[in-house]
Amino acid sequence: MTAYDDLLAHERETQALSQVMGRLGWDQETMMPRGAAQQRAEEMGALETVLHARRTEPRIGEWLNAIDEAALDAVGRAQLRHIRRSYARATRLPRTLSAEIAHVTSRSQGIWAEARAADDVGHFLPVFREVVRLKREEAAALAEGREAYDALLDDYEPGATADSIAGMFDRMRPRLVQLRERIMGTERGQPGLSGHFDGAIQIDLSREIATRFGYDWRHGRLDRSVHPFTSGSGADVRITTRVDEKEPLGCLYSVLHEVGHGAYEQAIDPAYALTPLGEGASMGVHESQSRIYENQLGRSRAFTGWLYGRMADLFGVTGGAEAFYAAVNRVHAGFIRTEADEVHYNLHIMMRFDLERDLILGKLEPEDLEEAWNVRFVTDFGVAVDRPSNGVLQDVHWPVGLFGYFPTYTLGNVYAGCLHLAMRAALPSLDADLAQGEVTAVTSWLRDTVQRHGGLYLPADVIEHACGFPPTEKPLLDYLEAKYSALYGV
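Given the sequence above, the corresponding structure tokens read:
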């Protein structure tokens, strides 16, 4: 087993360096001085060069060839599956291209933040052209006869294809659009919250909610960033949020979303730390955790009843628990994906999927993206985008090169729908617990059925093992129709 031991030792060091690079990215988005952007880009590029060299080390191929896979247990075979896949992808990418992508996307992130704050697409466009050019080159290098976009999608959801995602979206869209039209056609508009909500108190309440949902503060922290995100794995998993003192739900539910990601990483079997199994199975599975924490649990009538009590105590919110439940689940054609209701959310993702697929395939150029976005938004949501920060500049994903990531949000919603169905069958006292702000049973169920396994199983197998049936979009759509038909009387 010497070859296997040597391979895992090499992988541990590579994973450790990758975590260091992730920490640099976290620092850039939370605490780094603005004037350090150019130097940070060089640092990221240099570290990516080191990582690429380790990932393409010829000895990896030699070790893989020398290992008798039949002598390994299920964990060992899963480790080899991940390492083989990573090695095959890394060796198809030129070292210079890998380093340039790291350098340019690091620089792009800072320029995007400036452009977003100034609502100035022109300021961002030159560097965005570079990002798109590099990601097209990466896709071409990895494609091996597949559609170029599939090569990027595979980085986030192994085995998924653009055609399979498009087929799923085509099946989902009619029911989502019909539900939205029924709701928007009623006169039962649900009011949102109004008033002033102190930012420091929002953060304190967010920390309380995160603690209830099992986030381990010994191995995590909460900071502010332009765009909420989760960073790290194992013993160091960090989350961020943003605060608007006129609208507290964005902060609270962003934290709950990121806690889903963070709790997943913290719950993975410690024996898998700094190995390929020490991270989530895929971004779709990861999103299933963040979305089920945020939506099926956090936006449920039972939990919002408890949350209303805390909002009344801390902010003086009035109107009653039922009105608060309606406000939390208010359906409206808003601009911002991260603040979208459950009915509209997947339509946001479908739009981004189509646009980014066209960008990678060369059917759409960066300079035409803003117009394409605005036209599509009017078609899908019935309102015109008022400014770029509410439109094409709102998300950090494209500036940092995460093409192929967006569809995993809806895939995560689909997985969450399946898990929610299985969870309710397994936990008959769920609503009674949530009404008391008690989530230990449900977070334990998710930890045992999904989270602790990390990358041991293939993504769809994770969900099937947890639920007892293969993933399908039907439970999600049934849940949405039942919830919102009752809420809006349609």
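The chain has a mean pLDDT of 95. Try to locate this feature in the token string yourself.
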